[in-house]
Design brief:
Elements: E1 6-10, E2 16-17, E3 33-37, H1 57-60, H2 72-78, E4 87-92, H3 98-110, E5 115-119, H4 124-133, E6 141-144, H5 149-159, E7 163-167, H6 184-201, E8 204-210, E9 229-234, E10 241-249, E11 257-263, E12 266-269, E13 288-295, E14 298-310, E15 318-321, H7 325-339, E16 346-352, H8 364-376, E17 384-386, E18 389-390, E19 396-397, H9 402-411, E20 416-420, E21 433-437, H10 440-447
Parallel strand pairs: 4-8, 4-9, 5-6, 5-7, 7-8, 15-16, 17-20, 20-21
Antiparallel strand pairs: 1-2, 1-3, 9-10, 10-11, 11-12, 13-14, 14-16, 18-19
Helix pairs in contact: 8-10
The structure holds thymidine-5'-diphosphate and magnesium ion.
Length: about 450
């Protein structure tokens, strides 16, 4: 069959159709279709393959020395530093601190290797001013206010840069995609071009991607499959703490967390984050308890709060913030059946203080204790922690890393712990009284002595 000689390309989404229409049938954009000669299939290129044995001399010459980012927390999330030729995507809400972090990283790397920081969002003067404010002295850090990708790559090649920062992918534009900067086809094409560049030149590339209001559609999620490493910057509204999470990493573990605090002079790493979410009221209050969760390979002490209130009308409400609401409903049923904590006539609210999301099950036991505490109006001892999973038959099940959690609780000044029998250490750490429980009822008895 003869191929059509022309196609129409949408300027917004980059989709192709065979006939002109007022509205793009793919994305719904009006007046965006433009005629273009149909792509002819490129002549088959000569095979350019190289077979390299995985062991032996083939890889010896290409030993990858990772670049230290200057921040132990970021290196940890990356799996030990920035990999030459690797492409990393840093996503996050506008204003969360992506440019600040990367400017600090770029300046650190620039002390030993040439670095190019391409900013399409801010002028050179603005970036320079920020670098000054952050006290960064970086003589071999080159700033470039440019949005044309081929220009950026040319400069990078010329300088033989070891690191290229693109801030942000939503502002760059490649001539080979006929769409406005930020359009889906531009994002894809530019990222693919950057990946090809990184792999052939050995330059590490960091791409900033704003998480836009439309989120999944025009944001960094679209590019995740193209890059080697995906990092997301998270923060609680109003908090100065920032968490960097690796959701994909070809060079390290995923779900590692790095902790930072935004200060007047840039992002400072938080080396011991175990207690950063812990800011408790000075007077013990009913419904509050501290638990030890394990997120990103580290134990974290977190305050859980529960409030039960006599239901006024309609069906009882179950609201969970930072916790899985279905699991909360299951815990309410288990506590009712196996420990007589009856909350059918009550509205129930459970909250994780600090805005972190808990995905493991170690919060089961502390939440039940907090619910009972709120129901009885009796505060739990302020020097007590609890963790453990609860099963449907009312048993308290062990969770991984029990010893590590206990050690961290002791280090943060806690003196009592209610833990699953399966997590009871043979010799508890000195200074910590560990109560091992096998069932919900036992835990309640031990908590309210
Ligand atoms: P920025 O890095 O520009 O965010 P992004 O690139 O993710 O959009 O961060 C801007 C915010 O950080 C802004 O609200 C001001 C704050 N900030 C500080 O608090 N201290 C500092 O030293 C700097 C440079 C920024
Ligand atoms: Mg920025």
């Amino acid at each position: 069959m003869a191929r059509p000689s022309a196609v129409f390309v949408c300027g917004a989404c980059g989709g192709e159709t065979l006939k002109w229409q007022g509205q793009c049938p793919l994305c719904g954009e009006w007046n965006a279709l433009q005629q273009r000669e149909a792509r002819t299939r490129p002549a088959a290129a000569a095979p350019a393959m190289a077979v390299v044995p995985l062991s032996g001399a083939g890889l010896a010459g290409s030993a990858l020395t990772r670049l230290a980012s200057g921040s132990g927390e970021l290196d940890r999330v990356l799996g030990g530093g920035i990999v030459p030729g690797g492409v990393m995507l840093l996503g996050g809400d506008p204003g969360i601190g992506k440019s600040t972090l990367l400017l600090q990283v770029a300046a650190h790397v620039a002390a030993a290797h040439p670095v190019l920081y391409a900013s399409g969002e801010e002028s050179i003067a603005q970036v320079g001013l920020r670098a000054q404010r952050l006290g960064l002295a970086a003589d071999s850090l080159a700033l470039l206010a440019e949005t044309d990708l081929s220009g950026i790559l040319e400069h990078t090649r010329e300088r033989r840069a070891a690191l290229l920062v693109i801030d942000s992918i939503q502002t760059v534009q490649s001539a080979s995609a006929q769409a406005a900067p930020g359009a889906i086809s531009q994002l894809r094409e530019c990222t693919a071009e950057l990946v090809r560049f990184a792999k052939t030149s050995g330059t590490a590339v960091v791409i900033v991607g704003h998480v836009t209001k439309e989120g999944a559609i025009a944001g960094p999620r679209l590019l995740e499959h193209l890059v080697d490493t995906v990092l997301y910057f998270e923060s609680d509204a109003g908090s100065r703490h920032r968490i960097v999470r690796a959701t994909k990493n070809r060079f390290g573990a995923v779900n590692e967390l790095g902790f930072f605090a935004m200060t007047g002079t840039g992002l400072k790493e938080v080396r011991n984050p175990a207690a950063i979410f812990l800011a408790r009221a000075p007077v013990p209050a009913p419904g509050s308890i501290v638990t030890v969760i394990r997120e990103g390979g580290r134990p974290l002490l977190i305050e859980l709060q529960a409030l039960v209130d006599r239901m006024r009308f309609g069906a009882p409400r179950r609201v969970a913030q930072g916790l899985d609401a279905n699991r909360l409903a299951m815990l309410l049923a288990a506590a009712n059946r196996h420990a007589g904590v009856s909350l059918q006539e009550h509205d129930v609210f459970a909250n994780v203080v600090g805005g972190i999301e808990i995905s493991e099950t170690a919060w089961d036991l502390p939440v039940v204790l907090a619910l009972a505490s709120s129901l009885n109006g009796r505060a739990l001892p302020p020097d007590m922690v609890a963790f453990g999973e609860i099963g449907l038959t009312g048993e308290v099940r062990p969770v991984p890393y029990g010893d590590e959690r206990l050690r961290e609780a002791l280090a943060q000044g806690f003196r009592r712990a209610i833990v699953p029998a399966g997590n009871a250490p043979r010799s508890p750490p000195a200074g910590l009284r560990v109560v091992a429980v096998a069932r919900i009822a036992e835990a309640l008895e031990a908590a309210f002595v």
